[in-house]
Amino acid sequence: MAILKNVTVNDTGFIKLPNGNTAQRPGSPTPGMLRYNTDLASNEYYNGSSWVMVEEANVGDASTGGSITSSGGYRIHTFTSGSSTFVPSKTGVIEALVVAGAGGGHSISGGGGAGGYVYIAGVPVVAGTAYPTVIGTGGAGCTSHSANNAQPGSASNFGSGTPVAIATVGGGRGCHYPPGSAPNSGGGSGGGGPGWNGGPQTYHPGAAGTAGQGHPGGIGVHYNGTPTGTHYGGGGGGGAGTMGYGRSHRNQQGRGGEGMASNIGGSMVYRAGGGGGGYHSPNHGTASLAGRGSLGNTLPGQNGQYGGNNTGGGGGGGPYNPEPQGGGQGGPGVVIVRYRG
Question: Residue 241 in contact with residue 259, Cβ under 8 Å?
Answer without folding.
Answer: yes
